[in-house]
Amino acid sequence: MAYIIAEPCIDTMDQACVSVCPVDCIHFDEGTDRTLFIDPNECIDCGACEPECPVNAIFAEDSLPAEWANFVEINALWFTDKAAARALVEAAKPA
């Protein structure tokens, strides 16, 4: 199980979580992405990122609020199809 970055990160993108991740599994393309993404294949489920998020956007997958369930797919998709993940972010919260 991985941690998931959900809707509150969109357009906030505070990177405090990035600096505490021991495996560097939190990614984004600066200047392009509106949110950060956790690679589910790299995340070791340590939870170090969760308390660092100032907008409470990071959740253990089994604690993710139902209204943000689509962010499980969005986080994973970014690592195989960035354009599709960005389209889903836009659909979740239009700019």
Task: Give the CATH level 1 class.
Answer: Alpha Beta
Q: pLDDT below 50 for ≥5 consecutive residues: which ranges?
A: none
The value of Rg in angstroms is 12 Å
Q: Report mean pLDDT, rounded to a whole number.
A: 96
Per DSSP E runs of 2 or more residues, the count of β-strands stands at 4
Taken together, the total number of domains comes to 1
Strand order of the largest sheet: 1-4
Secondary-structure-derived class: alpha+beta
* SSE sequence, one letter per element: EHEEEHH
Give a short summary of the structure:
By secondary structure, the chain is an alpha+beta fold. The chain has helices at 16-20, 70-77, 82-92, and strands at residues 3-5, 26-27, 37-38, 58-60. The chain has a two-stranded antiparallel ribbon. The protein has a two-stranded antiparallel ribbon with strand order 2-3.
Keywords:
Alpha-Beta Plaits, 95 residues, alpha+beta, two-stranded antiparallel ribbon, 4 strands, two-stranded antiparallel sheet
Question: What is the strand and helix layout of this fold?
Answer:
Blueprint: E1 3-5, H1 16-20, E2 26-27, E3 37-38, E4 58-60, H2 70-77, H3 82-92
Antiparallel strand pairs: 1-4, 2-3
Helix pairs in contact: 2-3
Fold and architecture overview:
The chain has 95 residues and is α+β, with helices and mostly antiparallel strands. It has a single domain (3-92), classed as 2-Layer Sandwich (Alpha-Beta Plaits), CATH 3.30.70. The chain has 3 helices and 4 strands, in the order βαβββαα. The strands form 2 sheets. Strands 1-4 form a two-stranded antiparallel sheet. The protein has a two-stranded antiparallel ribbon with strand order 2-3. Helix 2 packs antiparallel against helix 3 (82-92). The relative contact order is 0.27.
